[in-house]
Design brief:
- The structure is a single chain.
- Among the domains are: about 1-15 and about 20-100, Serine Threonine Protein Phosphatase 5, Tetratricopeptide repeat; about 400-510, Collagenase ColT, N-terminal domain (Glutaredoxin); about 515-635, no CATH class; about 640-755, no CATH class.
- Helix content is about 65%, strand content about 5%.
- Strands 1-2-3-5-4 form a five-stranded mixed sheet.
- The chain starts with about 20 loop residues before the first helix and ends with a helix.
Amino acid sequence: MVMHLAGPILRRAAPKIALPRNGFVWLLMLFFSFSLRAVDVADARQQFINGQYEECYRNCKQAIAEQEYGEEWRLLGIQALLEMGRYTNALELLTASLDRYSSSVQMRLLGYEVLLRNGDTERAPMLLQEINVLAGGRAWAYRGPSDLVALGRTALLLGAEPRKVLEQFFDKAKKADPECREAYLASGDLALDKNDSDLASKIFTEGLKKFPDDPDLNAGLARAYLSGDRRKMLVFVDRALTQNSNHVVGHLLLAEHLIDGEEYSAARKILDKVHAVNPWQPKAWAYRAVLSHLASDSNGETEAREKGLKFWKTNPEVDYLIGKKLSQKYRFAEGAAYQRRALDFNKQYTPAKIQLAQDLLRLGDENDGWQLADEVHRDDGYDVTAYNLLGLHDNMAKFQTLTNRDFIVRMSAKEAPIYGEKVLALLDRAKSNVCAKYGIELEKPTTVEIFPDQKDFGVRTFGMPGNPGYLGVCFGPVITANSPAAQAAHPANWQAVLWHEFCHVVTLQMTKNKMPRWLSEGISVYEERQANPTWGQAMNPKYREMILGKDLTPVGKLSAAFLTPKTDLDLQFAYYESYLVVDFLIDRFGMESVKDILKDLGEGVEINKAIADHTVAMDDLETDFAGFARDRARKLGPSLDWKKPEGGKSDKLEGTQRIRRPLAGGPDVITNVTATAEIDTNLSESTNYFVLMRGAQKLLRDKKWQEAKAPLEKLIKACPDQTGPENAYILLAAAHRRLGETNDEMRVLSQLAEIEADALDAYSRLMELAGSKEEWGVVLTNAERYLAVNPLVPLPYRSLARASEAGGQTRTAIEGYETMLLLDPPDPAEAHYRLARLFHEAGDPKAKRHVLQALEDAPRFRDAQRLLLEIRRVEKTQTKAQPAATSAKASP
């Protein structure tokens, strides 16, 4: 692709050539020499884009030697040398070129990078100032698109306002020439520098419409997806490397992804490819240092860092990258130390400052963390991460803080009075249980922050809103979690979430944050299930299919499964498989072996060696675990036939996800069931899971409630532990309800409630049915279950209060009604009346205030009127008795 050169002002008159007498022969010789090279500047530019750096430089060198005019040859030659790590050669060519092209802004901008790569931090800024002077005095000379891009990049380096640069330089360049690829690259780079991945993806996508085979644009779009959709990132990295197998940025993105997935050996091989192109690539050596650090190889870490700094001794990017990757491995203290080293080199290096701010916040050093974020925002109002953090700080300033000896809990001021004390009680119980089990004392209190807005949770956790799939995250001493208010239509058991995250606090401290993700997640899910069998994850038909199919991931690659799941189901399965591995280790080798592995990891022992020392070698473990997992899968409904029917009937079940929410909602519960195929098999004879489930669904859709019961009962009997949306309990309860079989409906729902941690519809229906029968123990149990999922609605508090009131538990009943009133109940008058009655029975003067509030909301509330009269009679009696008592007391 031809690069657009500067305007005519840069062109000099071609030198006159004195021809020999035989001028025709000379011209033939000159033409012959050109034909030997047979490469014009456009071809050389394409060679550079395609990664043929050596060939590109060779052609540039030849053209320069032949006095080929045009700065493009020199620009390309310098860029090729930089890509190959030949920094001193690039400096030599730059020095000669600056003399020749004394008015070139593009040469000076490239020279800025060359000087930095050679460690000349004094002269490099001077070139930027020279560009500023040239543009100020001769702006008319730099109206070409490529010059506009160069001026825009320079303006950014000099601290210009990013939006103005985007509009006045990069957008103008695109308008002047829609085929100016440099404008798309510069605009996308600007968005990424400001941590605006959404804008960057739009810009690079726009550029790719014009240059679909451009590796730089494909790599730019991959960078935009790095912090979000890793599957898309890998697609565009692959495209970039297909178009340019030597593309350093593409290889570095792939290496970073592999490091994140704990595939360290594969990452080293990718870095080898980078070093084959450029043996001194600073980012590649930074990643080498990270790998050495993770392997507890301090000498290798030091050596890699020094090589990354060989030509530019004070390059802050090297330490910034090392620290950033360590922080992403939850080693925030070590990461923060590297950010401080980066800032020692350049106190204004924004990436290190904002990363350090987040590290400090995750370490619980909030004063310094918020101060740094504010500093970055004041210096650069366009940094999206800093802007988000400052907005978060303002929102969190309104939070309420609850504390005890071991925990600092921050919640919204609205939610804290409702279930804040329950949060503290749960965390205390988790600490007593888990710390004793693993034999550890925590060094300092744990901070837990619960966000009612998912965007705030995203910013606090990741620096950006988004990542809606996460319920909670643990950084070691700090836990962040979504409150039930942020979970919308898919509520999760908040008690299970906090227990899970606190287990991370324990294991991360035991290992000094040196543990693979699969082990960390696996232990947390295991401990959830130990605390409450309904928590965590359990085998279900879909997991059975995945395990017995081709979806079981080798243990050594299990951490990577969290990064690029195809679907939400695949992500959940990664958690479940991690739990299964831990369950297998404890079942086969005992809890002490797992604790010994954690202790070794804390000492810096590599995971495979730690496992081999206390169990078996990783290869053997993977083989044995696969057998364990398949055996566990086959135990789900062992008497059932799990072969999927042919003829289009093997599709996954439809409609069952949607049937859960209307369970307590009345007669329309079955209308959401979708049948995908007619069922002709005799259900009474079949033992096939899919035939039975589909047949039952069809019968329910056809309103054949009685006939639907038999296949569903058969499924439950054969597979009593089935959980999740593909669930026969839900359907059977619906059939019983249609038939008016209340006792059977309660029995089935009770069975479901015993194995499901977030079955809100089942809990609410059980409260309703048990309340009508005055089975207050059942009401209390299901009210507590409901509150463990969603404590922010009035329904469970009303049931809890009524059941407690009936059982003579006055204090609990009062707390229930008082909390209910905080949640804007549909009938506040009833709650006030019941509170008034309870207070009146206890002789508490608060009774009068509540009965008056009841009558304020419902003036014709007869029971409240009668209660008010009774309260007044008591008050009069007490008033009359008081003087008599006083007189008696005064008598001699």
